[in-house]
Write a structure and sequence with these properties.
CATH class of the largest domain: Alpha Beta
Protein name: 3-deoxy-D-manno-octulosonic acid transferase
Distance between the termini: 32 Å
Subcellular location: Cell membrane
Keywords: Cell membrane, Lipopolysaccharide biosynthesis, Membrane, Transferase
CATH architecture of the largest domain: 3-Layer(aba) Sandwich
Main location: membrane
Number of strands: 14
Strand content: 15-25%
Structural class: alpha/beta
Pathway: Bacterial outer membrane biogenesis; LPS core biosynthesis
Oligomer: single chain
CATH superfamily of the largest domain: 3-Deoxy-D-manno-octulosonic-acid transferase, N-terminal domain
Length: 410
């Protein structure tokens, strides 16, 4: 990579180090990277031969997980290294049992890259969706190590497709093969001369079906919804989402509500409770008997949301009034319609669900009411929209199998 890129990486790493003095997330990155090489030398075999899989954060890990599981299932003796850049992935999955080690990926300086690859000695590298680190990609190419990116999606607004994006376009040439989610991504890449591309789809579809098949019962949710004619499950919500959801719930006595805020802390839980005028309880402290007497359960703990969707007839997915909506597929797989805010355009699944009338977006109260009231009041319509959403998931299964057969199974 060019001296300018190297300078930018050093500047970025310096910025994170300075930020770590005050910000917990940056501090976790710096502290985690500080012990990466020590842990690799301790935990990895000196012979190397690892399948190295890198996921930026937790969301990318969930996309890569089906491939990890398929590799481990078919090759129990395979050596697998998992790396993260963000604490949101590492903190949750640092004990993931299907890999040999989980560490933070060091910053993309030439020194770090050579030290990392000399220690790991990977037989292949797989990046999930995003993360284009030029020095890592360049060094992998120079060493002849097959390098892939899976479940990738490209948009015209990205630097690769800008007149000034030569440095970014060069990174794409380092991949042995690129597996994209859709035809639009393939066409964009073809337009800049990148032809080693396969439209495989999104491995997240395979993941959510696995989650659905292994979901666990939530006794409180079962008690809440046992005699309910209508239940709305709201996942990963923020205050702007709740400003629409909670008044709607209050106005519909026939509706039960399960709400899981994106941030779980006392302030957020109390804020939700203060807006409810119907009986509610917290999942972590309520018994099933107590939940049966309530109209709303607030999910005040992590790891329950994907199973909670099974109790719903309608799903609301939060984040659409912020940087972007959260996981739609986790809800749609249960054959229920999904509703979300206006910031969805960079998410292919959101655009597709709207197109097939399994998902619905709104920007204001008038639009919200126009969407949700017919869904609440017309069971037949609600079930048809839910079927549309579920069929969309079923039609997009199989990306993991395609990628595995290409890069592992042959």
């Amino acid at each position: 990579m060019t001296p300018f890129y190297d300078f930018a990486i050093h500047l970025y790493s310096l910025g994170v180090k300075i930020a770590s003095l005050r910000h917990e997330k940056a501090r976790k990155i710096i502290d985690g990277q500080a012990v990466t090489m020590q842990r690799l030398k301790k935990e990895l075999s000196p012979e190397g031969g690892y399948i190295w899989i890198h996921a930026a954060s937790l969301g990318e890990f969930e996309q890569g997980r089906p491939l990890i599981e398929m590799i481990r299932r078919n090759h129990p003796d395979a050596k697998i290294l998992l790396t993260f850049f963000s604490p949101s992935g590492y903190e949750v999955r640092h004990n993931f049992p299907l890999v040999d080690a989980v560490v933070y990926l060091p910053f993309d300086t030439k020194k770090n890259v050579r030290q990392f690859l000399d220690t790991v000695k990977p037989r292949m590298a797989i990046f999930v969706k995003y993360e284009f680190w030029g020095n890592y990609l360049n060094e992998l190419k120079l060493r002849g190590i097959p390098t892939y990116i899976i479940s990738a999606i490209f948009r015209k607004s990205q630097p690769f497709f800008k007149p000034w994006g030569g440095e970014f376009r060069k990174m794409l040439t380092y991949f042995t093969h690129i597996y994209v989610q859709d035809e639009g991504s393939r066409e964009l890449l073809a337009g800049i001369g990148i032809k080693n591309v396969t439209v495989a789809g999104d491995t997240r579809f395979d993941r959510v079906t696995d989650i659905m098949e292994s979901c666990v019962e939530i006794p409180q949710a079962a008690a809440l919804t046992r005699d309910a004619s209508l239940t709305l499950v709201a996942g990963s919500t923020w205050p702007p989402d709740e400003s629409y959801l909670l008044p709607c719930f209050n106005a519909h006595p026939e509706m039960k509500l399960i709400v899981a805020p994106h941030e779980v802390n006392e302030e957020r839980i109390a804020a939700i409770e203060s807006q409810l005028n119907r009986p509610s309880c917290r999942l972590s402290t309520a018994s099933p008997e107590e939940a049966a007497k309530c109209d709303c359960i607030i999910v005040d703990c992590y790891g329950k949301l994907s199973s909670a969707y099974r109790y719903g007839n309608i799903a609301y997915i939060g984040g659409g009034f912020g940087v972007g909506i959260h996981n739609l597929n986790e809800a749609a797989v249960y054959d229920i319609p999904v509703i979300f805010g206006p910031h969805y355009h960079k998410f292919k699944e959101a655009r597709d669900l709207i197109k097939c009338k399994g998902g619905f977006s709104f920007s204001n109260k008038e639009e919200f009411d126009a969407i949700i009231e017919p869904i609440i009041n017309d069971k037949k319509l609600r079930e048809q929209y839910g079927k549309n959403a579920g069929n969309y998931i079923k039609e997009n299964l199989g990306a993991t199998r395609i990628i595995y057969a290409d890069i592992i199974g042959r």
